[in-house]
C-alpha cells in the first residue's frame, strides 16, 4: 500500500540558489538556458521512457502569483518573512476545535476579498502559450488561487493542494461556493463586515507587512489576529453546511448527527456535524489519492520537469521532484531565492551543459517567462 502524500511545511534553512549554467545569472542568459531546456529532446537515460515525447511538466508555487498581488511565503515580502507571528492552522486543529475555526474564518473573511479580485498575471499567460506551442504537457500547482485553470483551461492542471474557490463539508462532502459563504459570513458578523469595508477603503489589506497595515488602521494583537473594535475573533460566527442542516448525516458509530443553529443562525457548538472547511489541503492533511496519482502520472508521462516559483518547502511538492530525479529526468528551477535540496538536483550535470540537461535561474516568473515564450517563437521561426 502506497503512503499518502501529506502537506507538511519545511522549517529548515534554504540554501542559496545554485545558478546552472553559469551564464544563467543574467536575464539574457536565463532566457537562453530556459529556451534550450524546453526545446531539448528527451534524455535517453529516462526510465521508463515518457509516453509523450519531449514534453515538460510544470510544478508551480506561490511565487507565480506574486505579480497578481498575492503574497508568497518565503520571499522578501512573503507572509513568513514579514509576519513573524503567522502560524498556519493544521487540519486536526480545524476539524476538532470550534474556537480554532472561529479564528481561521475571521482571518479568511478579511483576506478573501483581495484574493477574489486578483487575476492571473503574465506568468500564467506565458504558461498558456507554452501549452499552445506543445512544449508543456501538464501543470501541477501547489497554489490554491485557481489562476492556472482560469488562465489556461485547455492545458490540464493538477491542483495538488486543492482550491479556495469552494468549501467542502467534512461530514457529508457537500461543496459550497466561497463567494456565497463570504456573504453568509458578512450577514452573521456585521461588525466585522463594517471593519472589512473600512480596511478595503484604506488599503490596509494590500500588504502583508504588519507595519504598513498598522499605518493604515489595521492593528493586530501579539498573536497576529486583527484588532477589530468591539469584536474579538472569539465572537466570530460561521454558517453550517446547508445539506447537513436539512438532513443530518449518520456518524461512524451509527448514530444520527446533530446539526443546530444558534440564535443568530450560525453553526452551534452543540452540533456534531455540518462543519465546512475550505477545499484546500491543510497542513497535516493527506492529499486525496486521486490527486496524488494524477500528479505522479503527470511526472511519469513527461520527459522533464520545470519548477516555477516554489522553494519546494512542502514535502508533497519536493517528493515529486525527487521522483523526477529518480527517473533521471532533467530538472529546471525558476525561483527567486533558495530551493529545498537543490544541491542534489545538479550534482551530475555535465560541465558543458547549456541548459538542455538542467537549468537553475533566480528570476521573477512574470518577467522572465513572457521573454522565454517570445524567444521560443523566434527560435521556431528560424529553425
Widest β-sheet, arrangement of strands: 3-2-1-7-8-9
Class by alpha and beta content: alpha/beta
Radius of gyration: 22 Å
Which descriptor suits the 3D outline? globular
Number of strands: 9
Largest sheet: 6 strands, parallel
Number of helices in the DSSP assignment: 13
Listing every helix as H and every strand as E from the N terminus to the C terminus, the arrangement reads HEHHHHEHEEEHHHHEHEHEEH
Helical content (DSSP H or I, runs of 4+) = 25-40%
**Low-pLDDT segments, ≥5 res:** none
Distance separating the two termini: 48 Å
- Portion in beta strands: 5-15%
| Average pLDDT figure | 89
Description:
It is globular and about 70 Å long. It is 36% helix and 11% strand. Strand 4 and strand 5 (175-177) form a beta hairpin. By secondary structure, the protein is α/β, with parallel strands linked by helices. It has helices spanning 27-39, 79-82, 91-96, 98-117, 122-132, 147-151, 178-188, 190-202, 210-215, 242-246, 289-300, 315-326, 365-382, and strands at residues 56-60, 136-141, 157-159, 162-169, 175-177, 276-280, 304-308, 331-334, 359-361.
Amino acid at each position: 500500500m502506497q503512503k499518502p502524500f501529506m502537506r507538511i511545511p519545511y522549517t529548515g534553512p534554504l540554501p542559496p540558489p545554485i545558478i546552472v549554467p553559469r551564464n544563467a545569472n543574467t536575464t539574457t542568459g536565463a532566457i537562453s538556458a530556459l529556451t534550450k531546456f524546453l526545446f531539448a529532446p528527451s534524455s535517453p537515460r529516462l526510465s521508463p521512457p515518457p509516453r509523450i515525447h519531449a514534453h515538460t511538466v510544470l510544478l508551480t508555487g506561490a511565487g507565480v502569483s506574486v505579480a497578481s498581488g498575492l503574497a508568497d511565503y518565503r520571499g522578501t515580502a512573503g507572509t513568513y518573512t514579514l509576519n513573524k507571528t503567522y502560524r498556519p492552522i493544521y487540519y486536526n486543529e480545524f476539524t476538532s476545535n470550534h474556537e480554532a475555526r472561529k479564528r481561521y474564518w475571521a482571518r479568511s473573511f478579511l483576506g478573501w476579498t483581495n484574493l477574489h479580485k486578483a487575476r492571473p498575471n503574465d506568468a500564467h499567460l506565458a504558461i498558456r502559450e507554452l501549452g499552445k506551442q506543445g512544449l508543456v504537457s501538464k501543470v501541477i500547482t501547489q497554489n490554491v488561487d485557481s489562476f492556472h485553470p482560469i488562465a489556461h483551461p485547455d492545458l490540464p492542471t493538477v491542483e495538488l493542494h486543492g482550491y479556495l474557490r469552494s468549501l467542502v463539508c467534512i461530514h457529508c462532502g457537500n461543496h459550497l461556493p466561497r463567494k456565497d459563504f463570504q456573504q453568509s459570513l458578512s450577514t452573521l458578523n456585521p461588525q466585522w463586515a463594517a471593519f472589512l469595508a473600512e480596511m478595503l477603503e484604506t488599503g490596509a489589506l494590500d500588504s502583508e507587512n504588519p507595519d504598513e497595515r498598522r499605518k493604515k488602521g489595521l492593528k493586530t494583537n501579539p498573536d497576529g489576529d486583527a484588532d477589530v473594535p468591539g469584536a474579538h475573533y472569539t465572537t466570530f460566527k460561521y454558517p453550517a453546511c446547508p445539506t447537513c442542516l436539512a438532513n443530518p448525516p449518520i456518524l461512524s458509530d451509527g448514530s444520527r448527527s446533530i446539526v443546530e443553529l444558534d440564535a443568530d443562525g450560525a453553526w452551534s457548538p452543540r452540533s456534531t456535524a455540518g462543519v465546512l472547511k475550505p477545499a484546500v489541503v491543510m497542513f497535516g492533511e493527506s492529499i486525496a489519492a486521486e490527486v496524488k496519482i494524477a500528479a505522479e502520472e503527470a511526472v511519469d508521462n513527461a520527459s522533464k520537469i520545470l519548477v516555477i516559483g516554489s522553494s519546494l518547502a512542502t514535502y508533497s511538492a519536493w517528493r515529486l521532484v525527487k521522483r523526477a530525479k529518480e527517473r533521471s529526468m532533467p530538472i529546471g528551477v525558476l525561483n527567486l531565492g533558495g530551493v529545498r535540496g537543490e544541491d542534489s538536483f545538479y550534482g551530475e550535470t555535465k560541465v558543458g551543459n547549456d541548459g538542455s540537461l538542467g537549468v537553475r535561474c533566480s528570476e521573477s516568473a512574470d518577467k522572465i517567462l513572457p521573454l522565454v515564450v517570445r524567444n521560443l517563437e523566434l527560435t521556431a521561426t528560424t529553425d
